[in-house]
Every structure is written in structure tokens, then in C-alpha cells.
Specification:
alpha+beta; single chain
Length: 106
Amino acid sequence: MLEYIRPASLKLGDKLGRTIYNTQGNVLIKAGISLTDNMIKTIQTQGYKGVYIDRVENSERESIRIQEPIIDDYTTIKVISLRIKIYTLTHGIIALQKIDSSLKNI
């Protein structure tokens, strides 16, 4: 069974239960890997709300037990990436329209 753990509660040797992806959608850490100190620091500094680890019996750390998330970190990253692209395109079109109208006045 998987357990959703906040990054501050991760410990050396925790076995990752689900693959973690970076902001570009590439694999950051594969499921099944035992976490090292560097991996834990990366997870903590990259803004992840939590990760899935293989459940450790008699765990005394703070965790959230849920059956399945409505949305995972990978989906959140993709949505944010799409919103940034839409924002950039929208503002690029507005800028081009302003340039076009300026050129017509010359």
C-alpha cells in the first residue's frame, strides 16, 4: 500500500511508490528507488506537496492516507505549463496588435 508523505517527513531510504516528474514532464526519480539525502533535498526544494512511498508499517511520521488523488503533481505541472503558454501567446498577440496599429499610423 502506498502512503502520501509530505517532503519534510521523508527519510533516508524511503522507497518511492510513484515516479516523480520535473516541470518539463521528464522523470526526476523513478518509482521503486530508495531515496538518498540529495533526492530528498531536491523534492523539498522543488515545491512538491508530497510524494508516494511504499507504506512502512508502524510509521510514526506525519502523513496523509488517501486512496487516490483527484490530481497529481504531474498533472498540476502540465496545467501550469499550459497556462503559462496561453498567457504568453495571448500577450504576444496583444503586443503584435499594438505594433500593427502603430505601424498603420506612420
